[in-house]
Amino acid sequence: MSKTEIIQELPKLRPEERQEIRAKLNELDGVPEESWMDDGELTVDEKQLLDERLAQFEADPHSGSPWPEVKARVRGKLQE
For residue range 34-58, what is the model confidence (pLDDT) as tens digits? Predict the structure, then answer.
């Protein structure tokens, strides 16, 4: 089977099958298993960071920037 044929078949696979293929490709590329895409669950560190950020927001809800400002800053940086 050629690379083109393999790529054409990928959309026909179920999500679980595509995840299995991603895992095998990561293994072949030497990507550490702990950094592979998972089922969407957050890591303990990610949950802790979110909890910390939420606590900061709850302590001072006006300390951040409104979404339109953030969006404008990001777009401005992308255009630089």
Answer: 766 556 778 888 999 999 999 999 9
